[in-house]
Amino acid sequence: MYGDRGQTLPIYIWMTGILLFVAFAFFAFAQAASARNGAQSAADAAALAAAQDARDELVDGLGGSIGEGDDWLDWLGGDEFTGEGAKGAAVALAADNDSSVVGFGPAEVNGYPGFRAEIETNYTVGDSIIPGTESKHAQAEATAIIKPRCDVGPSTDPEKAVEFECDGSGSFEIDPDDFELGDLPDASVLFSVHLAD
Description:
This protein is of the alpha+beta class and 197 residues long.
């Protein structure tokens, strides 16, 4: 009887060791997944911030060009932004998420312009039973695009009052001869910003 108990103890210790190892391994994978999720959130935020900055530039340019010539419809079409402040916006949002932008540039998805941001977390995965995780930073990338939401007919005369339909928001009219900045709909009505699929 005592001999059987003595044989069971090493098996119990061995099984406990295996269970602890598996638990620590799962914990390491959970740490890595958490870091990866944090990196993806930071990349999404950075790309969206860049696209939103460009959208603001489009709305400012649209407002400034109405009544000044015939190119204001180009602004409404979403073709005129330079994106000069886009990278700064991406860097700021990445920093808010404890990450750094390591790659950034313009992108185009299905004909719509946008920006691609690649980020790396400032924090590491952390210590675990898997060697090297204490110095491993998570990385991720995301692309956000700007999509015009308003349609104007190709034969529209930009020097006359123009009525246009905006997806999901109804119709609006802009009269270049009687225009104030407050007449413009909200930026989100004119252009949508979203992550590319």
